## 1
Amino acid sequence: MKKVIQFGETVEGYDIPVLNEREIRAAAGILFLVIFFSLMLIMFNNNFLLAKYSITIFLTDFIIRVFVNPKFSPSLIIGRLIVRNQVPEYVGAKQKKFAWIIGVALSGTMFIFMVVVNSYSPITGIICLMCLIFLFFESAFGICLACKVYRMVYGEKAQYCPGEVCDVKAKQDIQKTSKAQVFIVFGFIAYIFLISYLVGDNLRKTPYDLFGIFSAKSK
């Protein structure tokens, strides 16, 4: 029973239970796509079916992670299969548990409002947006936003963070951003606004079927 009900795994060289950040990021990407497509269906087709399924799946998956064992989480298992050939990147399990408890709270609230009560409101919209932001930052940047408040809640520094961000250290040259690079970013933003001003009307036009292929099929 002890091996079934546990959080994190014991790895030689680490004095606390750890998890593989690579499979966590893969799982976050999978969940992000599911929730994103659900939101698109709501926005463009007013179809809540996929959203209700994804909320139920999301809640069940996080309950397994927190209260049973992350090894038995379906999304993490799929993530493990996807990144099985990559070298593991170990992170402290404790801060991840804290973040996933927040995930249980958010998805549980969504489940009550949208699945049980069968309703939607600004509350569900805000929570959905928060979940998307959390999952996007985790999958795209390896940044656990919920983990950022771990120290404030527990009064201790998290150990073994992704990219060793918990450890204070000097940046290497390849990590530094010069003034010229910052200028390029702002210049690129200005360029986008300029394009919008100069040819914005043409960009907003619906493209026509150049060879008439799709127009012929629709007749």
## 2
Amino acid sequence: MSLNKAMIIGNLGRDPEMRYTPNGQAVTQFTVAVNRNYKDASGEWKEETEWFRVVAWGPLAERTAEYLRKGRKVYVEGRLQTRTWEGQDGQKHYTTELVASTVTGLDPRPREDREDGAQEPAGARPARGGAPAGPSEDLGSSDLDELPF
């Protein structure tokens, strides 16, 4: 038996960048910073940041690019994958990335202005299917049925 599953919670390091493959499939890339606090040998608290490259495909890629922004706290679940390519210098290059199967926004969504000038409540955009955007945006709640994730 084998298992390749990764789960991270962190903050987006930059806005997601979406493009389309030649066959028309959406692919979005972004980075997530995950912090770890620990005590060093002298008992002093230290913070360490690990950066993860994340790739999302298809409808998840489109939703991620549309709704997530730099600094937002996210939960990402997926599998680790290492890609190899040969650079212009003839050297082999490697990169390991998390291929997302679930991306969930964990921050509350900001209120947005509607066309009529009234304030729109957080999470009032139409539903697009997929995973919920976060604990406060659970699709199981009757008053939050119109969320984007």
